[in-house]
Design goal:
Elements: H1 5-18, H2 31-38, H3 42-54, E1 58-61, E2 65-68, E3 73-76, H4 83-89, E4 94-105, H5 108-114, E5 121-131, E6 134-144, H6 145-148, H7 153-158, H8 160-168, E7 172-183, H9 186-192, E8 199-209, E9 214-223, E10 227-230
Parallel strand pairs: 3-10
Antiparallel strand pairs: 1-2, 4-5, 5-6, 6-9, 7-8, 8-9
Helix pairs in contact: 1-3, 2-3
Length: about 230
């Protein structure tokens, strides 16, 4: 059985991108022009384009057109890795900008997720995480204050897991991760250099040590156009 026409068009566009004739960030021709080029209806052409959008190869922008998508940073959902390691695996240099850093009483949700008694103090770090100077994520991390007491702020904000392993013997074993989709707020949009109500992937993670004790509760918003999760089974 022959492949549908839109699949053939999909394959040809994909081959053009893979060959470098269209590069990440390039705007592809309008639907009308491509439909004429492939001698098909605009409906058939649109099927091919939308399939490529669904695959993350193309990026449709309302009022602007369709562009070759920039490569996204990926994180696998069956393990725990530091942001630094994740960026390195994608060929990017990781950096962070601290927005706020303070110790205060744990909220009800922090008490629950970190299994803390009432009135416990937590260190709350608010950061923007970058890959090659491009904002990838906005993150709020909460850690029991007594666990990090006396530790260097720069070490904690730049490489939390490495610092805790080397200074406290805390080793990451696993994490519970919940991913949802949302629209970004005005404040976070400004920090991530995107538009208000742009889509973000929201990850809530409770990280557990070798004694099966939760020691970190993180709420992270990843820029939807720059990041994706994947799962292997």
């Amino acid at each position: 059985m022959k492949a549908p026409v839109y699949i053939k068009i999909h394959d040809e566009i994909r081959e053009a991108i893979d060959a470098g004739r269209w590069k990440p960030g390039d705007k592809i021709p309008a639907e009308r022009e491509l439909a004429e080029q492939f001698d098909v209806s605009r409906m058939t052409l649109r099927q091919a384009v939308m399939l490529l959008v669904d695959e993350g190869v193309l990026d449709r922008r309302v009022g602007a057109g369709t562009f070759v998508a920039e490569p996204k940073v990926q994180e696998q959902l069956n393990g725990v890795s530091s942001f630094t390691d994740m960026m390195a695996a994608s060929g990017k240099k990781a950096t962070s900008k601290t927005v706020s850093y303070h110790v205060s009483s744990a909220s009800t949700s922090e008490q629950k997720q970190l299994q803390l008694p009432p009135h416990t103090q937590v260190l709350r770090m608010e950061r923007v995480r970058y890959g090659d100077d491009e904002p990838i994520a906005y993150e709020v991390a909460s850690i029991p204050a007594d666990l990090v007491e006396g530790l260097n702020r720069e070490d904690l904000t730049n490489s939390l897991y490495k610092t805790l392993l080397e200074t406290r013997g805390v080793r990451v074993t696993h994490a519970k991760q919940i991913v949802t989709a949302s629209n970004v707020t005005e404040r976070v949009a400004e920090l991530l250099q995107i538009k208000r109500n742009d889509p973000v992937l929201v990850l809530r993670q409770i990280t557990v040590d070798q004694n099966n004790k939760p020691f970190e509760y993180v709420r992270t918003q990843y820029v939807g156009s720059r990041f994706e999760f994947y799962l292997e089974r």
